[in-house]
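FYI - complex with SN-glycerol-3-phosphate, inputs then prediction.
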Amino acid sequence: MHLFLDTANIEQIRHAAKLGVISGVTTNPSLLSLEGRSDYKAVILEICSIVSGPVSAEVLSHEVGSMIEEAREISSWSPQVVIKIPITPFGLEAISILSKENIKINLTLCFSVNQALLGVLAGATYVSPFVGRLDDIGHNGMELVAEIVQIFAHYNFSTQVIAASIRHPLHCVAAAKAGAHIATVPYKVLMEMTSHPLTTAGIARFREDWSGISQEAKQEK
Ligand code: G3P
């Protein structure tokens, strides 16, 4: 399973990239708005300069013609760019045209198996089931990921499943168990994944023991 970082924050992306564990980035209008930057193209290009993998950037239009125009423009910014398009009838129409132009699409705001299937049939490269938002309304988001993965494998679809709307480290474990190709995680979750109280305690203990023995060695000299 690959990990993408779900953020538009440049510092977070720089740090995660240094760790060598993320192979792409996903953004959305809400994440971009958190950064208070209106220079959409500049932000996306800056992200592309930090990571070498796919960078998802979402269209803001809702009508098919302007969606296609916007997607063509955004995808011309960098070969790394993947266009995020919400699953709607207009979205599917746009995906079916754009995918024939070899523009990579990440079907976003996916909340059902049928939506995922339609995304594949229209030509999406990725589908993003939103796990946390389903959990929020009392559904099992990870069950949806598992069902989509199973059906895609059954038919040998090449479309990859991105477990999105990840809220905590256990979501990541569950996404891996479900066979998701990718989990896109917020920076906070990535940092939580690195830590374990026994690792922290173990490091402190090793340091303490070593400093005891090196003190003794100094005293003996
Ligand atoms: O990138 C889209 C998705 O991950 C959003 O997550 O936490 O806003 O539901 P969230």
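Residues 206 and 212 are 10 Å apart (CA to CA). The beta strands are 2-6, 24-26, 55-58, 81-86, 105-110, 126-129, 160-163, 182-185.
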